[in-house]
Amino acid sequence: MRIINGHRAIDLSSKTRSVRLEDIGAQFEVRRHPGARRLTLRVSRTRRAVIVTLPLQCDLDEAGTFLNRHIDWVRARLDSLPNHVPFEDAAAMPLRGTPHTISFTGNPRTRVITVDDRQGRRPSIIVPGDKERAPDRLTRFLFDEAKRDLAASVAKYTRPLSVKATRIGIRDQTSRWGSCSTTGALSFSWRLILAPPFVLDYVAAHEVAHLAEMNHGPRFWALVKKICPDFETAKQWLQVLGPDLHRYGPPHGQPVNSPPAGE
């Protein structure tokens, strides 16, 4: 099938395919779902993706027709999204809820990232070394900072509940801020390091409570309140402002590269 998209035609022949819609700057995904009874269209705020869901019996050609019929709606939704903020020199980004300015110095004498938070000026994240590799280096730094803060929060909350996490992982997930497996492994989004500390703390408390209660029933929320009494404020912050954290840094799904040898 070919979807005509302004300046170019896009071939779409598999059941699920993600392609680039160059003129609107978004990913287009077609998905089949056994429970779908009609075609649906949505725009993912976190991934800046346009997603068409089809019933199993629906012909793939209909996905392109359906998208083109609603292209003005798609454009309006995409235009309403906050702009993506890549990691580049002089860009502004939050760190632990405070606005910072990124500084790629190009200084080859050190590879250590530092934070300059002297009073009287906006804090800066100083990223030395090769400027081409600086975005990857900054992303890895933020992963490490998130793991450090989350490990401390998890340790703080496991003690009063007498539970133990078997592992703490940091990922770039889009559908949730944290998760807890039946084996006791906790996983968190690195983007929590961009939020105020009380928000990161709440997500840690939420997942620690799952180590005792693998549900969202009354007993679970009682445990969350026991270890994090003001959790409602953080929960509301995530609902209102959390989606904006996804606009910073590398696009979702882009791997975080390890620093080259010698860095």
The parts where pLDDT drops under 50 for at least 5 residues are: 1-20, 258-263
**Main β-sheet description:** 4 strands, mixed
Helices and strands: which structural class? alpha/beta
Chain oligomer state: single chain
What sort of overall outline do the alpha carbons produce when their principal axes are compared? globular
Can you give a write-up of this model?
With 263 residues, this protein is an alpha/beta fold. It has six helices and 13 strands. The protein has helices spanning 61-69, 71-79, 134-161, 197-210, 218-227, 231-241, and strands spanning 2-5, 8-11, 17-21, 26-32, 40-44, 49-54, 92-95, 98-104, 114-116, 124-127, 167-171, 178-180, 185-189. Strands 3-4-6-5 form a four-stranded mixed sheet, covered by helices on one side. A four-stranded mixed sheet has the order 7-8-10-9. Strand 7 (92-95) and strand 8 form a beta hairpin. Helix 3 (134-161) crosses helix 4 and helix 4 (197-210) packs across helix 6. The protein is globular. Residues 1-20 and 258-263 have low confidence and may be disordered.
